[in-house]
User: Fold this.
Amino acid sequence: RFAATRAAAVWPLTPQIIQGRFKAGRLDERRVNWYTVPYGSHPLPGPDTVTCDRKQVVYLGDVVRNKGAELFVPMVQALKRFVPDVRLTVIGGGKDLEALRAEVRAAGLAAQIDVCGFVERIEDALTRLAGAGVAIAPYYPHDANSFTFFADPGKIKLYLGCGLPIVLTDVPPIAQELMREGAGRIARYDAEDFARAVAAVLDDKRYPQMRESARRMGVRYAWPEVFKAAFDRLT
Assistant:
């Protein structure tokens, strides 16, 4: 509170973050100068629509139940009805990583689901993301206290930097922006619904436009652009 009321500016990732503090009485809005500085992206000169692999789905993040891990196997099982040779790459560590690997083996999906584990270098993670057809972000919607309802998740910006259309739940504020920009689709936190949404993206006649929309958002949110805009407002 002391810092927020005396700083030249406070930079919340989203308006929802700081407005939540105002509503909770933790900060006095009249005494805080603030404006949004979102999480940035790392834009890549990714492949065009012709050379990307539209049968490749990617996930980057914690491998934890109630953060999507329990959806991966049944989602791929359902998705195979629409895209028989679909593949899912899971990048990230977490307490349910080994359980997911065991579930993949038990389901006989080792050829369809590649559970990479934690990738230390961001450059290596981006290399694995680049060239895929669609990315997923199944945020858990049933915890009203989840910070993700207010947050600006970094994985979304990584996806956009790779020009990837995104299928996600309607939890983080950016979900609606992705819909408005034509760079993503919203699905319920349900394996069947995610499978249908992913298949719809991959089969959409506007798929090239979705990739271009994602790419444009990634460029707009590039870290140099984010910080330039933030510091320009201080002068």
The beta strands are 56-60, 87-91, 113-117, 134-137, 166-168, 184-186.
